[in-house]
Amino acid sequence: MGVIDAEKLTKRYPRVVALDGLDLSIGEGVTGLVGANGAGKSTLIKILLGLLPATTGTATVLGYDVVHQGAQIRALVGYMPEHDCLPADVAASDFVVHMAQMSGLPHAAARERAADVLRHVGLSEERYRVMGGYSTGMKQRVKLAQALVHDPQLVLLDEPTNGLDPGARDDMLELIRRIGKEFGIAVLVTSHLLGELERISDHVVVLDAGHLLRSCATSEFTHATGLLLVEVAGPGDAQDRMGNALAAAGLHARPRGRLIEVEAVDDRVHDVIRDVAADLELGLVRLQPGHHHIEDVFREGGAGHVQPV
User: Fold this and answer.
1) Which residues in 228-244 are b (16+ Cβ under 10 Å) and which e?
2) For the chain, which ranges sit under pLDDT 50?
3) Given 3.40.50.2300, 3.90.420.10, 3.40.630.30, 3.40.50.300, which CATH number is that of 4-221?
């Protein structure tokens, strides 16, 4: 039995099917749940928390049935919602203490735990300020803190990097990685940004319009393709000249954004690329193996648009 198990899980609304016969098993570690807006990610989380009834099918979380044992599930699970839900006139410390007490901790233990988790998420110095004056990044950290304060066995994080700038996004991803890797808490994190999930997830679940498109280890997405990615630096149309020269040398080369994709047919390919760059008097900036990405699944399956970064 997994941390989360679902069988034939379906959720129908009058004009849309949010989940359609979903079979799913999620284990320990960090699992990324990826899909375009409307793919069914938030609906799935609400069903798993026992907050939204499924139309048909069954699901368990930590061995508890979502229909009949929702209270037991919520006592063992931390939840970080996507949207801003923080009271503007309350200090972060008071809010997280309150959430800890709502989860059953006595007051003294709640204050101690709140101080610990706020320090962990980087809000030790700001915890007594009212949250109405917080930046988006600080508010996301408070939401993460309240999800962790009662020492859950599983945390469900719904779009935790939503609205963050690149620096704050990297910080949030590092916090999530630590929760799963160092603290040993199972994590289910949703995102429509594919690169985020490749960076932090052990396992990836791909949803498209309520259907399970794929579920596998992240390493299965990012295995080597047998291609080399080449980047050169030089005046003018350096990339075009390099690509044409590689083709003239008998290699299968084609553009891939600002890179050149070359089929690595044998060991001599590296030497040919080096020699061609030298002959053209171009700087060889990058020569690395190509890897599959989660976005390839969407291209192959014809799924809805999901951002690759």
Assistant:
1) bbbbbebeeebbebbbe
2) 302-309
3) 3.40.50.300
